[in-house]
Design goal:
Elements lengths: L3 H9 L6 E4 L5 H13 L8 E5 L14 H9 L6 E2 L4 E8 L2 E8 L8 E2 L2 E6 L2 E4 L2 H14 L18 H11 L2 H5 L5 H7 L3 E2 L4 E2 L1 H7 L3 H4 L4 E6 L11 E6 L2 H15 L2 E5 L5 E5 L3 H14 L8 E5 L3 E7 L20 H9 L9 H12 L5 E4 L3 E7 L4
Parallel strand pairs: 1-2, 11-15
Antiparallel strand pairs: 2-5, 3-6, 4-5, 6-7, 7-8, 9-10, 11-12, 13-14, 15-16, 16-18, 17-18
Amino acid sequence: MLNEDQLKTLIADIESDTAERTESTTNTDKFAQAICAFANDLPNHRRPGHLFIGVRDDGSLAGLNVTDDLLKNLAGIRADGNILPQPMIAASKFSFTGGDVAVVEVQPSDLPPVRYKGRVYIRVGPRKATANEQEERTLSERRVAYAKSFDAQPCSESKIDDLALGQFDSYRREAVDPETIAANHRPIEQQLASLRLYDPERGCATNAGMLLIGKNPRFFLPGAYVQYLELPNVSLTDEPLDQAEISGDLHTVLKELEGRIRLLVKTSMVQVSVLEEKLVQNYPERALRELLMNAVMHRNYASNAPIRFYAFSDHIEIQSPGGLYGEATRENFPTRNSYRNPVVAEALKSLGYVNRFGYGVQRSQALLNENGNPPATFEFDEQSVFVKIQKRSA
């Protein structure tokens, strides 16, 4: 992050492709577009861009009082799901005699192109613009050199024929601004690459492309399925009431998981007082959904092990391959998180399976408490995350 002397120097300088000033404290669209543009780093500086709030166009201070709420709102732009994939940003406050300055520092993305509400924004010198087809292609090709996450890497043995392109069209309409689609005359390979589903240099799908729109993802990623068991009691040795290997593209998997959850959730009437009864569920449906979505989004897809979803008579277990990732630790879970699969996370947000990043576990715990269930318990090791959800007692 900048120190005070560096900030003074940048404020006094002219606007550029790594710096933008504004007096507004409420124009979230403007802030988000600037963050998106800095994250795309079209000039390829590979250094942070900075948004200065509380600074006039001529570099003078606007006399702003930066509050904690403003800093929280600025930091929250990262997690609201409108900028995809999520940028890495930091928001801080500097105080001077002429007023405060809020600074948002944006790191260049390793997964360009980055979109805000379906549009790719870039910096062209001191101004912001929407990327044209050639600029978007440049960003897509650059990603190949930077991609670090498994889902963004090439699925090297695949071909474009292994992708269900009809499903891509449906996904694209959720992820990309309609005007951009209408003006799009690029070959299908470039369109796939712009959403990180295809590697044009190697002529193959990415792992995310295979997971999201692959005709047979398990052929290339053997662990990409969910092992489901419903058992009559509390032992794995019992004869299961139902079992399935739930596989296919992620949209198909998630739809079937939602159906399984609905079958497991039972509603009953309980007596609250002498004169009052109310309907309750053995498990809150939304809590189970959040925890399963979390498992699908954060699992290690390089592993050959499936997600395990086991329903016992008094509890449910979800085991996901891959331990805690990145900044997440036993001590800060679930308030801190990193994304092992940022392209998959982006797709789940675009398709409506995720409403807001980073709150799934906390929301689930709140729903369990509201329904009268004990809190879900979590166990972590290097290989997996294990979640246990207890049934609501009568």
